[in-house]
């Protein structure tokens, strides 16, 4: 009778071990699924954050480029105006002398 009890106990232990294995396997599968879901969500959040930062950066860069281009254009224009004024004031003295010479000179 002890041998029957021993075999029944062993069988119970084997069944319990198999059940424990199934429970551990199911827990592993559930854990892997949760980890994959968490990874996917984290990647989605990172992509959204990266996109937002890129958009902010592009907006900042384009604004800076426009401001820099406007400043450069203004500086170039101011420089050209100054050159024209300087050239005009140099030439105007010569033109006045030439006009006075032609007006006062008689063609005899």
TrEMBL record:
It comes from the Eukaryota. InterPro entries: V-ATPase_G. It is a peripheral membrane protein. It is found in: Vacuole membrane. One of its GO terms (biological process) is proton transmembrane transport. Keywords: Coiled coil, Hydrogen ion transport, Ion transport, Transport, Vacuole. Residues 25-59 form a coiled coil. GO terms for cellular component: vacuolar membrane. Belongs to the V-ATPase G subunit family. PANTHER family: V-TYPE PROTON ATPASE SUBUNIT G3 (PTHR12713:SF27), VACUOLAR ATP SYNTHASE SUBUNIT G (PTHR12713). Subunit of the V1 complex of vacuolar(H+)-ATPase (V-ATPase), a multisubunit enzyme composed of a peripheral complex (V1) that hydrolyzes ATP and a membrane integral complex (V0) that translocates protons. V-ATPase is responsible for acidifying and maintaining the pH of intracellular compartments and in some cell types, is targeted to the plasma membrane, where it is responsible for acidifying the extracellular environment. V-ATPase is a heteromultimeric enzyme made up of two complexes: the ATP-hydrolytic V1 complex and the proton translocation V0 complex. V-ATPase is a heteromultimeric enzyme composed of a peripheral catalytic V1 complex (components A to H) attached to an integral membrane V0 proton pore complex (components: a, c, c'', d and e). This is V-type proton ATPase subunit G. It comes from Cardamine amara subsp. amara.
